[in-house]
């Protein structure tokens, strides 16, 4: 489709963004291992590795995971615990708690650093538990490889959007977080801001800090350590407030960040 990216006025479709395909592949690569071994510099490099001034659409998950029988990000993180421990009136497990926290952080850092546009895919916004598989019969590829199909089954031929809308399930908090991310971008326009600067990729603390527009993003990927009085340098001195907190109770978190606390950058507060 040679005219796909040409302007509409000269006969093209006008699509001038590139799909940042490496990001979704990187998350699956990391999720197949141990999150305690994640390298902060490697994550940042993958998210920011694109040509200067080339606009990209980024996404944390794609059809490679959600459509062809592989595991969704949510299932990689929480596995079979999702079938028994996603009700708010029942107990949770460490897998569920860690999985929900990481799922939100994966989506937010992808949106924050991965490009100028962000794409959800087939229930990713609330952690769709299973892949989506359309009815299909057996086929033989040109290489001669035989693919058995799924006996034309409709068993997984649906997207469970009802899960994200069910207020008695933990999926609802994950969907609320996705909506909050969209509202954050709508209000601050950080994805297309000219100001982008990664100020910290700390491998021991497992902390990533970066600035986009007027916002400062702070991610703590450490599996056991929380921090207080953590010093973060910023371009603009002054007082900062929390505008989005993935650990808020509304999003299924534990509410460990105090939103009323005043946060000052280095130098004299204003």
Automatic annotation (TrEMBL):
Residues 197-266 form the Alpha-amylase/branching enzyme C-terminal all beta domain. It comes from the Eukaryota. Pfam families: Alpha-amylase_C. GO terms for cellular component: cytoplasm. One of its GO terms (molecular function) is 1,4-alpha-glucan branching enzyme activity. One of its GO terms (biological process) is polysaccharide catabolic process. Transmembrane segments: none annotated. InterPro entries: A-amylase/branching_C, GH, Glyco_hydro_b. This is Alpha-amylase/branching enzyme C-terminal all beta domain-containing protein. It comes from Aegilops tauschii subsp. strangulata.
């Amino acid at each position: 489709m040679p005219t796909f990216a040409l302007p509409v006025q000269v006969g093209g479709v006008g699509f001038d963004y590139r799909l940042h395909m490496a990001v979704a592949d990187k998350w699956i690569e990391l999720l197949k291992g141990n999150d305690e071994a994640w390298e902060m510099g490697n994550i940042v490099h993958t998210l920011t590795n694109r040509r200067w001034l080339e606009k990209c659409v980024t996404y944390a998950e794609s059809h490679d995971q959600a459509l062809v029988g592989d595991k969704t990000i949510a299932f990689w993180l929480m596995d079979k615990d999702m079938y028994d421990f996603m009700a708010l009136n029942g107990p949770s497990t460490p897998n569920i708690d860690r999985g929900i926290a990481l799922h939100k952080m994966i989506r937010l850092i992808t949106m924050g650093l991965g490009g100028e546009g962000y794409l959800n895919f087939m229930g990713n916004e609330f952690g769709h538990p299973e892949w989506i598989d359309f009815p299909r019969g057996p086929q033989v590829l040109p290489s001669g490889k035989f693919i058995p199909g799924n006996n034309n089954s409709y068993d997984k031929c649906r997207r469970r959007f009802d899960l994200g809308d069910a207020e008695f399930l933990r999926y609802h908090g994950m969907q609320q977080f996705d909506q909050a991310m969209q509202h954050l971008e709508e209000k601050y326009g950080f994805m297309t801001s000219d100001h982008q600067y990664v100020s910290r990729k700390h491998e021991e603390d497992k902390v990533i800090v970066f600035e986009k527009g007027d916002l400062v993003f702070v991610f703590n990927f450490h599996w056991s350590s929380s921090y207080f009085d953590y010093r973060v340098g910023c371009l603009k001195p002054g007082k900062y407030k929390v505008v989005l907190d993935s650990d808020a109770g509304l999003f299924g978190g534990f509410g460990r960040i105090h939103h009323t606390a005043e946060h000052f950058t280095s130098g004299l507060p204003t």
